[in-house]
Amino acid sequence: MEGCPTSIDTSRETFGKYYRLLSSMSGTAARDIFALFDVAKQFDNDINLLQFVVCLYVFAELKLAEFTDNAPLKLLQGKAELTDSKLYGKFANKN
Questions:
Q1: Is the Cβ–Cβ distance between 41 and 53 less than 8 Å?
Q2: All domains of the chain in start order, with CATH
Q3: Contacts of 18 (CB under 8 A, 6+ apart)
Q4: What is the rounded distance in angstroms from the CA atom of residue 34 to the CA atom of residue 41?
Q5: Which of 15, 53, 84, 94 has the highest CB neighbour number within 10 Å of its CB?
Q6: What is the pLDDT along the chain (95 residues), one digit of tens a residue?
């Protein structure tokens, strides 16, 4: 798949980049995660689907984001450590 990495970048810098991107999209509604990704590409054409999906799910697991099909994306206030996410841990332990 074009634009998809073979592994996930687990650096704070990359997750921060995607969090800032999602923050700029807060309130955007999309029919599904793929449509949300298409919107995100309009903000930053250098992002890739796999990293986007993993970051969004990690943020959701950490209660920093909420996204469901056909509903607005919500970015929630708070702080969390990436290492508190089980999904993040699965990728971080592979790198």
A1: no
A2: 12-88 (1.10.10)
A3: 47, 51, 52, 55, 56
A4: 11
A5: 15
A6: 444 455 799 999 999 999 999 999 989 999 999 999 999 999 999 999 999 999 999 999 999 999 988 888 998 888 999 999 999 999 988 75
